Amino acid sequence: MAEYKLGKLLIEGKTKKVYELVDDPNLCLLQSKDRITAGDGVKSHELEGKAAISTATTVKVFQLLDQAGIKTAFVKIASETAFISKKCEMIPIEWVTRRLATGSFLRRNPGVPEGFRFNPPCQETFFKDDANHDPQWSTAQIISAGFVLNGVVLGKDEVDIINRTTLAVFEVLERAWASRDCALIDMKIEFGVDTSGEILVADIIDSDSWRLWPSGDKRLMKDKQVYRNLSAVTQADLDTVKRNFKWVADQLDYLVPPPSALVVILMGSPSDEEHCKKIAKHVTDLGLRVQLRVSSAHKATEETLHILAEYEGSGEKVVLIAVAGRSNGLGPVLSGNTPLPVINCPPTRPDNVALDIWSSLNVPSGLGCTTVLYPESAALAAAQIHALHDHLVWSRLRVKQLTNFIALKNADITLRNLTL
Ligand SMILES: Nc1ncnc2c1ncn2[C@@H]1O[C@H](COP(=O)(O)OP(=O)(O)OP(=O)(O)O)[C@@H](O)[C@H]1O
Ligand SMILES: [Mg+2]
């Protein structure tokens, strides 16, 4: 931590200390403690090694969210037990998302059986107030509180954006954990407003933040609920809790897989290069690998089939995008000779589209190639296919939806306030 000069202690909570950084007023350092607490701090124990496990967990979760495109306050790891974050004024609300009903939800909603499934996930908010056991608050209560943080007034639009972001965070992490056969049952996150006025997912996300049931089996739970459920706490109990937390931190290493999804863009002629590069740009923006190839199904059919054999034999997961002007023989020939998905994206112009498009659309029976007109659509269609097996690609598509929502909301706010 020698590279960071710590300034004054901003705040000390039950599980961490937050320090200013002398060299950057926009950042802070979150130093985790070897302490585990429950019941608003009533139950509390020293747990040697917890700070390191908690930091490792939080850092990996924030890195995953970052790769998915969600804006968080996380900046970088500082030591085994601390990380650097954007310095925020924190919104004193816990944003909770539930896929299955359990725990306090059952007490507050008598009659709902444990395991009741919420589609879409259930969202709840709680005001952070230990003395009053964090009472549940409605959206109306949050807006009416009139929170102002780093100059940002928390109104309906801001709460809408936070609610949508909370849902995306949950779904991204739920998918990621599903890839390890773990069910994310529910979780809570917190938001802060940084010094530039941006609303960010902040605080930490660790084994205290969620319920995690391997194979969806409550008896196998790996989260802090194990500690909450203990009446008398022995050293052996604490060892079990720590082993569970370590297991979670270790599993997270598998949740950011090396990129495997490959999109191959085949063009019938090098004159299609510009159009293909536009598709390639969208594909790489979505975090997929891309390769460009040139092959004419009309003039060099055998070579086209050789290229196809190359990818079929590679053992990789491949989606093909066929780009051919005038008569598109390429896409249908590929599609007729492989079970791999083929997406046609002909480089049409307004003056030739009515003529050329039919070669992509009116294909012989037995062919399943699809056709889109725009480079972005081709990339998105390929990503949607890969998203079925790659949770990170799925997450990027999911966060793209969120980003679109936020951009439209912000445009609406700007235009609504325009004086004409
Ligand atoms: N990026 C950040 N910038 C500023 N403060 C932060 C940031 N991230 C977290 N904090 C704040 O650090 C404080 C200490 O965290 P800690 O979790 O230990 O508190 P706590 O005792 O659990 O209290 P709380 O119930 O508010 O979480 C919290 O008030 C939290 O909101
Ligand atoms: Mg806290």
Write a short abstract of this structure.
By secondary structure, the chain is α+β, with helices and mostly antiparallel strands. It has helices at 50-68, 104-108, 139-145, 156-178, 225-228, 235-251, 273-285, 301-312, 330-336, 353-356, 358-361, 375-387, 391-416; strands spanning 6-12, 16-21, 24-32, 35-38, 43-46, 74-79, 82-86, 88-90, 93-100, 117-127, 136-137, 148-149, 152-153, 182-194, 199-202, 210-214, 262-267, 289-294, 318-323, 342-344, 370-371. The protein is built from 13 helices and 21 strands.
Descriptive account of the structure:
One of its GO terms (molecular function) is ATP binding. The chain is an alpha+beta fold and 420 residues long. It has three domains: 6-83, Phosphorylase Kinase, domain 1, CATH 3.30.200; 89-254, 2-Layer Sandwich (D-amino Acid Aminotransferase, Chain A, domain 1), CATH 3.30.470; 262-389, Rossmann fold (3-Layer(aba) Sandwich). The protein has 13 helices and 21 strands. Helix 1 runs parallel beside helix 6 (235-251), helix 7 (273-285) packs across helix 12 (375-387) and helix 12 crosses helix 13 (391-416). The longest helix has 26 residues, at 391-416. The protein starts with 5 loop residues before the first strand and ends with a helix. The model has no long low-confidence stretch (mean pLDDT 96). Bound molecules: adenosine-5'-triphosphate (ATP) and magnesium ion (MG). Residues 13, 15 line the site of magnesium ion.
